[in-house]
Structures are given as structure tokens and as C-alpha cells.
From TrEMBL:
InterPro entries per record: EF-hand-dom_pair, EF_Hand_1_Ca_BS, EF_hand_dom, MICU1/2/3
Residue ranges of domain EF-hand in the record: 346-381
Superkingdom assignment: Eukaryota
Organism: Mastacembelus armatus (zig-zag eel)
UniProt KW Nucleotide-binding keyword: no
Keyword annotations from UniProtKB, A to Z: Calcium, Membrane, Metal-binding, Mitochondrion, Mitochondrion inner membrane, Repeat, Transit peptide
Record keyword Protease present: no
SMART domains referenced in this protein's UniProt entry, alphabetically: EFh
Gene Ontology terms for molecular function: calcium ion binding
Cell compartment(s), UniProt: Mitochondrion inner membrane; Mitochondrion intermembrane space
Protein name as it appears in the record: Mitochondrial calcium uptake 2
Biological-process GO terms, alphabetical: calcium import into the mitochondrion; mitochondrial calcium ion homeostasis
Length: 417
């Protein structure tokens, strides 16, 4: 406090001094202050950037409790939509899962229901007797149990092409008989969980063992209530196709308001669903100005586009084959790249909607990189993992706080922050 009082006294003296001496005095006094600001800002920013990892001294008797682990966006969303609890663990019902991939937020205020063992046994029996269908999850409704690991597994099915699952199935099918048992399936789920959550590879076996403690509806559906059945690839492939078709039909009905066709502006709204609305203002403006009213898109056209979005990686590769890097593409090039990536063609109606929506400068071309970024947000339903703040973020914070401190010390509001 004495140093700051001295600084104020000197500053007042300098302001009364001749102009020639004023700058020198201010520099002599302000320099230590700015240096102190740098050091102080570093401490502040280190705390801001690393506040979750800073050690805290606690003077207490007994064992120290470990800090609660940070929850991922997917885990948070799972807990939000999970409506039942069994053995103190949250679980989704099939209805909860459909809501979680269709809705941005929970639109209901229901207390989580605590299940008993007889209720869970009844759910498993129902699942074991269920037949393959494109309305399986809607038929089961709230009469089912889905764990967090299975939630990640089902999300993966919705966002990946079928070829990727065939490879995973073959890797787990050790004897090559096109069959997988329950233990192998649990490993598959936890490999997917490891991929999503970056868990250590050596923890997968333990996770698989732990997962067998509580059977779920998905396990009963694939392997029977006692877990003794075998899952063939044809059945697994049918399940993947049915799940994708069921979610696609639900989303189509949601945005078409239950009609057999979807208006082009409804399709545009679906495209921008789950994306950052602040960054998409120009797209919303394009939708209002360029897309004519009264034209519709059928479910088959909609489903073909969904198939395309599940092949974005292949589409990116095919785009490099038909156009120069980072160059805007025309509709013919875009259509050809989709054909290469998926083997199917998008209708002129869908292509025209996409181009009018994402063509920001009106030259009948679009930036495929920007388009793909928006589509990735759409496919991942707003759950794209954000990069952690690193060393560069720390120094940006230091720079900002230091400039702010220098501005206050010198009283110069012209210093940009």
C-alpha cells in the first residue's frame, strides 16, 4: 500500500511538472507497475485456465475426498434425458433416447423413476421377445433400460456408415463364423466408449466385466434374457438400418409437422438444427429470401440426404478428386462427389435447397469446407467436443489482463484490449 501511495504522490507531482519532465517520471513510476501487472495477470490467468487442476490446501482430519470428475457434454446430456434410476445409476428408456436425438433440450419436467428388480426383469423379458422392426424403440417406449455406454454405442450407429460397423464386427468375430456373443458385444461397446471418451485401452476389459453386472434391454434383445444367444452380422446390420430409419422417420415427421412431405423451408430448418445460431444468421436470411414457398421434399429424398451426411468423410475425399483445394464448388461437382461417396444421387430439389441456403455470395457455388463444418454439427447434434484451453489460451489471457492493467495505470483509454 505504501508503494501505491508513493506512486500517487509522484504522479500528482509530475502532472504539475513541466512537459519535458512528465514523460520521464511517468515511465519511471509506471514501468514497475506494468511489470507488476504482468506478474499479477499471469497468476490470475493461470488460475482461470487451470482452475480445475490447481492444488488446494485443505486442513481437515480424515481422508481427503477426490475431486468430482468433469462430465463430458454427452454425459451431461445423457443424465438430463435419463428418466429412470436402477441401483443408484441413471438409465435411459428407448423413448428417452429418441427424445435425446430429436430435441435440443428436455421439454418435460418429470422426476426420475426408481426401478425395482422385478420391474427391470419384466423389461428384459419384453426386450428378449421383441422382433426386428423400424419402430422398435417406439414400441418399447418407457419399457426398457439403456446404459450410458449403450447410449454412446447407439449414437455411433446414427452417425457412421454401415461399412465401419462391419469392420468392427469382423474384428470381434475371432473365429470368423459371423457370430458375436454377449462378452464380445460388451467389448465392442466399451471400445466405442473408449473412442468417445478417450479412456485408456487397458481399462476396456475391466469396463466389459463391470458392464455385465446389470443387464440391459439391448443385451436382452441381442442375446436373450439369459445372455446365451449369438448375434449374427445379418441381425446386427438389420438393427443398425432399422434404428437409423426410425430416427430419420421421427425427425422427418417432427419437421414436416406430421405430413407426408416436408416443405423446403422445413428442410432448411432441419439442416440448421443443433448448429450455432449466432454463426448461421446469414443462412437463415438466405432461407427467407431465396427458398420459394410451396415446394416440398419427400421422405425418400430426405432419407437419401441423411445417408449422405453419414458419409461426410468419404465426401470430403471425393471433393478433392473433383475440384481444387479450398475452391468453391458448383452443383454439378457437388452432385458428382456425393455419387462417388455414397453411390446414390441427391434430388435436384434437395440440391437446389442446399445451394440456396449455403451460397453466401450468390455465385451459385458454395464452400464445401464451411458446409461440412455445419453438417458435422448437425450430424453430431450439437455434441462436438470442444478443444481444451491450452498454453496459447493462457498467454492470450495474460496479454489481455496486462494491457488492461497498463491502461488503468497510465490512464490511457486508447490502448486496445
Amino acid at each position: 500500500m505504501a508503494k501505491w501511495g508513493r506512486f500517487g504522490f509522484v504522479l500528482r507531482t509530475v502532472l504539475k511538472s513541466p512537459r519535458s519532465l512528465r514523460g520521464l517520471a511517468v515511465r519511471r513510476v509506471a514501468a514497475p507497475c506494468v511489470l507488476g501487472s504482468v506478474i499479477g495477470a499471469g497468476v490470475v490467468c493461470y488460475y482461470r485456465v487451470n482452475k480445475q487442476t490447481l492444488p488446494v490446501t485443505v486442513h481437515a482430519e480424515g481422508h481427503k475426498e477426490a475431486p468430482a470428475p468433469l462430465l463430458s457434454p454427452r454425459k451431461i446430456r445423457f443424465i438430463q434425458f435419463a428418466s429412470v434410476i436402477y441401483e443408484q445409476e441413471p438409465y435411459m428408456t428407448p423413448r428417452d433416447f429418441l427424445f435425446s436425438v430429436m430435441l435440443e433440450d428436455v421439454d418435460r419436467k418429470l422426476q426420475k423413476r426408481i426401478l425395482t428388480k422385478p420391474e427391470v426383469d419384466k423389461m428384459l423379458l419384453t426386450a428378449s421377445k421383441s422382433q426386428a422392426a423400424k419402430d422398435l424403440f417406439r414400441t418399447l417406449g418407457d419399457n426398457g433400460l439403456i446404459s450410458y455406454t449403450e447410449y454412446l454405442f447407439l449414437l455411433t450407429i446414427l452417425t457412421k456408415p454401415h461399412t465401419g460397423f462391419h469392420i468392427a464386427f469382423k474384428m470381434l468375430d475371432v473365429d470368423g463364423n459371423e457370430q458375436v456373443d454377449k462378452k464380445e458385444f460388451l467389448k465392442l461397446k466399451n471400445i466405442i466408449r473408449k473412442t468417445k471418451m478417450k479412456a485408456p485401452m487397458d481399462s476396456i476389459e475391466k469396463q466389459a466385466e463391470d458392464s455385465q453386472a446389470v443387464s440391459t434391454s439391448l443385451q436382452a434383445y441381442f442375446f436373450g434374457k439369459k445372455g446365451e444367444n449369438k448375434l449374427r452380422y445379418q441381425e446386427f446390420h438389420r438393427f443398425m438400418e432399422d434404428l437409423q430409419a426410425e430416427v430419420q422417420e421421427m425427425e422427418f415427421l417432427q419437421f414436416s409437422k406430421g405430413m407426408d412431405t416436408m416443405r423446403r423451408e422445413d428442410f432448411a430448418e432441419w439442416l440448421l438444427h443443433y448448429t450455432n445460431e449466432e454463426d448461421n444468421k446469414v443462412y437463415w436470411e438466405n432461407m427467407r429470401k431465396r427458398i420459394p414457398a410451396g415446394q416440398s421434399i419427400t421422405f425418400d429424398e430426405f432419407r437419401a440426404f441423411c445417408l449422405f451426411t453419414n458419409n461426410l468423410e468419404d465426401f470430403t475425399v471425393s471433393m478433392k478428386m473433383v475440384t481444387e483445394a479450398n475452391r468453391p464448388v458448383g452443383m454439378a461437382q457437388f452432385k458428382r462427389a456425393v455419387k462417388i461417396a455414397t453411390g446414390n444421387e441427391l434430388s435436384e430439389n434437395v440440391l437446389d435447397t442446399v445451394f440456396k441456403l449455403f451460397d453466401t455470395d450468390g455465385d451459385d457455388c458454395l464452400s464445401h469446407k464451411e458446409f461440412i463444418d455445419v453438417m458435422k454439427d448437425r450430424v453430431l447434434r450439437g455434441l462436438r467436443v470442444q478443444p481444451e484451453i491450452g498454453f496459447s489460451g493462457y498467454w492470450k489471457c495474460v496479454k489481455r489482463e496486462t494491457l488492461k492493467g497498463a491502461q488503468e495505470a497510465l490512464g490511457d483509454t486508447r490502448i486496445p484490449i
